[in-house]
Automatic annotation (TrEMBL):
Signal peptide: none annotated. GO terms for molecular function: proton-transporting ATP synthase activity, rotational mechanism; proton-transporting ATPase activity, rotational mechanism. InterPro entries: ATP_synth_B-like_membr_sf, ATP_synth_b/b'su_bac/chlpt, ATP_synth_F0_bsu_bac, ATP_synthase_B_chain. One of its GO terms (cellular component) is proton-transporting ATP synthase complex. The lineage of its organism: Bacteria, Pseudomonadati, Pseudomonadota, Betaproteobacteria, Burkholderiales. It is found in: Cell membrane; Endomembrane system. This is ATP synthase subunit b.
Length: 156
């Protein structure tokens, strides 16, 4: 065999191998590569979509956080104002109640003072009558009367 015939035979075999590969082997490989590329593209698109959704979700979360912080601050301010008003009302009620108690105590003290004066007047009157009885039962003597009056003074 000569080089030309071998070369020609190798060319024919090579051509048949290329035709076989192009008809039977290459289409499934190309199809698999195309499917893989499509899956990768879909995955990238899904990742971009998820990234956009995540970004919008983060934005909504931030907006809600700002809104809730604002509401919380408002509610805290309202609660503080209400607490202060309740405290002021309680102070006013306590002051009013205290003044009522003081007035009642003063009135009671005044009544007890009046009652004590009445009791003292009764006792003084009783002692005066008792002293007068003792003076009238005995004879009139200045020394004895002075002694009785001194005792009466000590009893008062």
């Amino acid at each position: 065999m000569s080089i030309n015939a071998t070369f020609f035979a190798q060319m024919v075999v090579f051509f048949l191998l290329v035709m076989f590969t192009m008809k039977l082997v290459w289409p499934p490989i190309a199809k698999a590569l195309d499917e893989r590329a499509q899956k990768i593209a879909e995955g990238l698109a899904a990742a971009d979509k998820a990234k956009a959704e995540l970004s919008s979700a983060n934005r909504r979360v931030e907006e809600e956080l700002v809104k809730s912080r604002t509401e919380t601050a408002g509610r805290l301010a309202d609660a503080e104002r209400r607490a202060l008003s309740i405290i002021e009302e309680a102070k006013a009620k306590a002051a009013e109640e205290g003044s009522k108690i003081v007035a009642a105590a003063k009135a009671e003290a005044e009544q007890q003072t009046v009652k004590a004066r009445e009791v003292l007047r009764e006792q003084v009157a009783a002692l005066a009558v008792k002293g007068a009885e003792q003076i009238l039962r005995k004879e009139v003597n200045a020394g004895v009367h002075a002694d009785l009056l001194n005792r009466l003074k000590t009893e008062l």
